Amino acid sequence: MAKHTVITMPGDGIGNQVLPESLRVLKEVGFDAEYIHADIGWDCWCNQGNALPDRTIELLTKHKLGLFGAITSKPNKAAQAELKSELHGKGYIYYSPIVSMRQKFNLDICMRPCIAFNGNPLNYIRKKAGGGFDEPHIDTTVFRQGTEGLYAGIEWTNPPENVRAALNSHPKFKSFASVPGPELAVSCRIITRNAAKRICTAAFEYAKKRGFKGVTICEKPNVVRETSGMMEEVAKEVAANYPGIALWSTNIDAQLMWLNKNPEDYNVIISSNLFGDILSDAFAGLVGGLGFAASGNIGDEIAVFEPTHGSAPKYAELNPPIVNPIAMILSAAMMLDHVNEGPRAARVRKAIADVVREGKVRTYDMMRVPGGAKSISQGAVSTVEMTDAILEKLR
Ligand code: NAI
Ligand code: MG
Q1: For the chain, the helix, strand and coil percentages under 3-state DSSP, each to the nearest 5
Q2: Ligand 1, residues at Cβ distance < 6 Å
Q3: pLDDT tens digit string along 2-30?
């Protein structure tokens, strides 16, 4: 029997192209695992009215470890239109299966490393005051709270009477009191002290392990006083348990401005769900973009690892596939770390680092050529060839 069982969920579009590549790499480094395929995504929605089928939930509940590719997600109205005709009018509501998965299994620690590889032509560079450029080494990991905040899903257009009454009890609601229900949309930003404590603790533990001297809490407590306020308050409480590590506080708007000034100063950033999503994409842009952005959704019992990118439908039908498998392979390396296979994870990252540094093998995104069938003839390698180059380094 294999030591580990991994539920593989390629999902939609390019998820089906990149996930198998990560399995080739896991095999090459001798990861002792059995893989069980599970369905997730758009076809499941269209045919069953549920993008996260029960069998997938059962498999994850049982085996507790998942690798996920990407899914296609659409707003509920567009989703309804694509539902199989027999399922129309039966009350099915579309929810993003990855958001549902995080909430169902309490995968609340969303860890998103954005760490530059030397020699990546997509790395951030900065103009020096005295002329010329420098390339600061970016090594940032965003700890995004994964289950609450504005993704909690507690929202209404035309809120019911009792909700409206509750809103009316708040003095600040006076200026909205005469807005007709159908003209009014409300999304609740929920933060619980316990979840805030967990994400802050995960971030400080990581900072301690990596030897970083500070952790940044990035919110907006001067305006969003209750929820950002609680995040910041809890960050201070948690920081008190880590005397050698400073707590810095930034506002989300200023943080994004500093992204172009001194991004190398931020090694660990904690943020709530939506701000964390924005921050992690922003930092990913400094280290190569979506082709390099890996993530883990980690709960106490269950963990699912996935590239940050989506299903990129415009590339999904290309043969050979052209998208960069590195984000997916780095996600698999995070999974190795999670199951105490650190040395194997390190080998994978070293092999990727070698390929990137040599610069002989690059997918289209790394060459800054337009993506499409033509990118191969412009010198880009295919998805499979990029993996081949990484495998070559591992042999
Ligand atoms: P996307 O991430 O799928 O693609 C945006 C663009 O980024 C692509 O067109 C491509 O130019 C580039 N890109 C993405 N992955 C790449 C890779 N591995 N290598 C090279 N280039 C890459 O985002 P988009 O187009 O906004 O959304 C497409 C679908 O994916 C939507 O239905 C969206 O809801 C869904 N989505 C799903 C996510 C998930 O599964 N976790 C996350 C983000 C979007
Ligand atoms: Mg995102």
Answers
A1: 45, 20, 35
A2: 70-73, 98, 290-291, 306, 309-314, 323-324, 327, 365, 371
A3: 999 999 999 999 999 999 999 999 999 99
